[in-house]
Amino acid sequence: MPQKGKPKGRRTKTWVALAVVVAGVVVIWFLALLVTGPALSLAGGSALGKAALDRVNELVALGPRPVGSEAHRKMERIIIDQLKAAGVSVDEDRFTTDTPDGPVAMNNISGRIPGRGGPSARTIILATHYDTKIETKFQFVGANDGGSGTGLLLALAPLIAKRGFVHNVWLVFLDGEEAFHEWTATDSVYGSRHLAAQLQSNGGVPKIGAFILLDMIGDKNLGILRDSNSTPWLRDVVWKVAGRLGYSKYFLSTGTAMEDDHVPLLQAGVPSVDLIDFDYGPDQSYWHTAKDTADKLSAQSLGIVGEVALETIAELDRQ
Ligand SMILES: [Zn+2]
User: Fold this and answer.
1) Which pLDDT tens digit goes with each residue over 190-238?
2) Which among 31, 45, 83, 138 could disulfide-bond with 307, CB atoms 3.0 to 4.6 Å apart, if both were Cys?
3) Dihedral through CA 205, CA 208, CA 209, CA 212, nearest 10?
4) What is the pTM of this model?
5) CATH code, domain with 257
6) How many structural domains are present in the chain?
């Protein structure tokens, strides 16, 4: 406000100037909206990030959650209940698969949110693995590895259900990503291999527009690698969206070739990208160790990745 006692003319000029500035801001905001679509009004994804971290803490409180454990069964229940509470319909795909330890029962859980695009619309899959690595020598709770992606997908479920996209969105919680013993082509990514085989056998591959994998995305010191195995055009969309949101410093230009749940989908012909921060603690010392605990994560990191995932779907809607 102008100070008391100032000449009226000055007041008027100030108000006119203020009005011009406000109008300018409104026009710029409107133009930005035209280019980028409606803003998420999450203020850096902080509300989303906090919700995701709450869910990670809930999962970590169950303790280690390897395939076949009681904690894993409780987690399946939590995932299903929270998806349903968000108004999302749930598909459970239970299967038994051969492992070095014999046949093991697993469950890929999928929350399905229909889009506005009608029957011909394609589907975007946001995926994570929810199992934690089997460890007998120490307590492995997988806050980041297993927990972070699961917590974030659960926090995204109500937002996606409410917002609605043109594409259908499936939130897929993959089982059995971790090796039972040593990571090999046959002892790893059981859930995604099953999903890929199923899409191939039921003719579903062309109906999937993109597969976006979230794995180890909660590290306080966030740095998502540019995975060279991922589909280049899809990876470019994600990096472009991250840049537009001001998150370039978290989406690195340094690359590496990741073996993860996206590989079976890539091999099946589904455009796929792996969003993974594979630099966890000094010299990777928090990865697959007792140090992978929730205190290493931040709501901010989870929120940033969640926001980029949402805006990537919005961007794919516009293409
Ligand atoms: Zn792992």
Assistant:
1) 999 999 999 999 999 999 999 999 999 999 999 999 999 999 999 999 9
2) 45
3) -110
4) 0.86
5) 3.40.630.10
6) 2
